[in-house]
Amino acid sequence: MLFGTTVTDQLVWTAMFVAVARALRLRTTAAWLLTGVLGGIGLENKDTVVVLLLGVTIGLLAWHRDALRTPGPWLAGALAVLLAVPNVVWDARNGWPNLAMAQVLSDRTGGPLGSLVQLPLLPLLAGPPLIVLCVLGVRRLGWGPGRDHRWALAIVVTAIVVFTLGGGKPYYPAPALIALFAAGAVRAEATSRGRRRWPAVIVVSALIAIVIGYPVLPARDQNGLRALNPTVMETFGWPEFADQVKSAEDRMPPGTPIFTSNYGEAGALTIVGGLTEPVLSGQNAYSFWAPPAGRPDTVLCVGEFKISYLRRFWSDVREIGRITMPDGIGNQETDHHAAIYECREPHGTWQQLWPSLRHYD
Q1: Exposed, middle or buried, 97 (CB in 10 Å: 0-12/13-18/19+)?
Q2: Pick from 73, 70, 25: which is nearest to 53 by CA?
Q3: What are phi and psi of 297, to 5 degrees?
Q4: Which of 87, 107, 293, 340 is deepest in the core (most CB within 10 A)?
């Protein structure tokens, strides 16, 4: 339902846990090279994998120094860095946008203090049954028969500490809990008690997660759960949104570009709406797709804009109409009074205005 860097990041962390455990068991260079490939691919997707690699390093230094006396881990680290070099070079040439975005997100969270206050949300993301598995996992890895895998516990602690000090969001350390789930599950399966209760409890938890996390209910009913998860409602109303914009576009001169307030709106108009006119946005990575040449003499601005903001770039700004959703449902656009604006008399060319139109949030 939600495909983004976080989803694939969790897959990378899971694969890395398995690969490191395998490499420590087999003690071969080839097994370690697999961890380097996974780490490098993970870094192509999300920079937070650096924290994962740091946790692996700390775990090996603390409990598996014998592995560091072999070439495998060092070659794996070099391979991960080599795969990450193109991203690093691109970031450097473009003013380190990843660091700028990270700073914006940290400021929004409230810095380290805000991240610490939100840290209790991490167990809630796991769900009650998995919280119990996490506790069992910590006991098994820390003091139980799973002590040989304490390196995994080092990754968990490293992720929580680094992401909290960096002002990260509460779900950033979530992939590290995978190791605790696995260790806790082994502990649960090793006992006769709860063999039937565990599946039943996890199924109930899964059903609750599906209702909260997936658009399985009618729109009106799902709208009532927005306080728990507003993201689900972002899956409703895009065809109607696109129709409203296309209706306004039909009254504009042919080829009038559309400038949206965020990449979600731009993507919806391109994919769902099928608009052939240039669809632009200055938000985040979307802003790296350069604007067209020439002057934005007539532009249809769509989204969460204020007229005072648009008048910084166009002298003549006229609101055509508000963005509405069917059945009274709400989403980010309705919450922030998104509208469609006709903008004329620009204060410069696209190239001159673009640096000020770009924004990270």
Answers
A1: middle
A2: 73
A3: -65, -40
A4: 340
